[in-house]
Amino acid sequence: MTAQPISASIAVLPFVNRSADPENEYFSDGITEEIINALTKIKGLKVTARTSAFAYKNKPADIREIGRQLGVANLLEGSVRKSGNKVRITSQLVNAEDGAHLWAHRFDRQLADIFELQDEISLLIADQIREHYGHFEVQDHLVQAPTQNIKAYDLYLKARYNHLKWDNEGITNAIQYYQDCIAIDPKFALPYFGISYCFAMRASFGGMPGLLDTAEHYLQRGFELDQHSDLGYFSQGTLLFWGRWDFKGGAAAYLKALAINPSNTEAEEGLAELYTAIGYFDLAEEHAQHILTLNPLSPNHHFTLANIRYLTGDYEAALAAAEAALQIAPNFTHAIGLKQLCLILLNRPKTLEAFLQSNRLVECPEECRTLYQLLHDQITKSDAARLIQTPKSERDIYLFTWDLFLQTHFGATASALDHLKAMTSRCIGQYVNFAHLPLLKPLHSAPVFQQLLQQVFAPNRLPPATEGDKTEPAGSRNLIDEAEIPALLAQLQQLMETEGAYQNADLSLRQLAERLNLTANKLSWLLNEHVGQNFNAYINAFRLKQFQRLALDPANSHLTLLGLAYESGFNSKTVFNAYFKKSTGMTPRAWVKKQQQA
């Protein structure tokens, strides 16, 4: 599973917890996620989503292989040590193609300064990528403090850490931490959005009555504090779509989340799932494919794609996508259940039975076998009746609607339709795709089924079937008046050739911009648009010429080539050798020898 890397791209790998207390892992995970979120705010920079980056947590892997799998040119590694009121963060930016270190730094700060530190690290990383790979605009700040209460923020990170486990225990713990966080700082918006999502999903999948109202309460309180949060609109989309089957409102909320943060793959996955439920399969596929470019190792995203193909009748493709999800997460029950259904519909009894026997997490194996036999005329109705008539109260709630499928293919049409009416009236999440479930086709001709379709999918409840033209105009906007450009280019040339600014080994884009009385964004644009080079290539070209002059000067024969490289402004042997060979096609020593022999 590999992707073609994009130059201006990065994956932030999980920062390692170096604290004495292993329980502080939530903090190192939280810092990693915050840096990911900060970098996603930069238009033109591809940032791998959290799920795929965290797939490598505690798993030793070759940097170059990670880069190939994620389709990125750069990787950020780091560690976090939290002790009392102090925090130390080390980070290093690595070229994923060759493993070369582009930048490294260690930060020692007070915990109270954590938001300023996240902002500083994110901006430094963005600057490094821009200097090496080309122009994109970077905001003055990428991280704004969401709260002034560090204890509340610490609780929020604990809540988020548990929330992202996506299991019942994790959600239960997350709800408690969110509530504790709100109690300490009632004006901190993010925990309201987090807890609203937790309650909305519990309500959708058969939770206690009243949970949707609770989710709505927390959501509205969050919006009173922050009306511009992509997490807030993602939570709203979840509540409206999954909780209330409000497709129009849910789509509008998800689209607002994506307008704020186009890299929010959870919101885009929610939108793809919504479009799937209402039969906008082309739009659903488009979004499912897009999120996989940002989050290629998310089992959920592969499942979303598998579900689209299952509901459109392409069971081979659905099975392949489900297998892709299981390759990443072998215990992912959504993909396990979908694989069972695909094998039933593909009429592969031996493969199905082997899977039921070998996987302890398969859903309802007896129901699955009976459904296969009913569908393929391998069982009498009297033999199937015992299982089908098992009282519902004695059975668990499952991800897939096995009871409904069995009733349908047993021929108990009235019971199946009563069951479907009851579940759709309660907006139970497992039934949201009922209009397209292939195993419900025998019900389609029933008037009750048609009435349900008209009620649930009435035109006034649906969003537009198109999203409009989302293509962006080619090229970048002019950041400098055309009349000023010649003078600025002349001034820049003077700084290089006359003043030798390139000889400063620590020279950055921002420092050079200050000497020109420009912003870093404007200088980056000027170099890339009017010189045709990124900052790194531009500066190193002067350093290379200076090295070549020094290396051929007999007065410097007593100095090493590496010493001359440092004197020319290069700050790394690796960078010098790589740039020299890329520019001349030979090593520095071979070049010098050739020139001396000429």
Automatic annotation (TrEMBL):
Origin superkingdom: Bacteria
Keywords: DNA-binding, Repeat, TPR repeat, Transcription, Transcription regulation
TPR repeats: from-to residues: 299-332
Domain HTH araC/xylS-type: 490-594
Gene3D superfamilies linked to this entry: Homeodomain-like, Tetratricopeptide repeat domain, TolB, N-terminal domain
Any one GO molecular-function label of the UniProt entry: DNA-binding transcription factor activity
InterPro entries, sorted: Homeodomain-like_sf (IPR009057), HTH_AraC (IPR018060), TPR-like_helical_dom_sf (IPR011990), TPR_2 (IPR013105), TPR_rpt (IPR019734)
Protein name, UniProt field: AraC family transcriptional regulator
Organism: Phaeodactylibacter xiamenensis
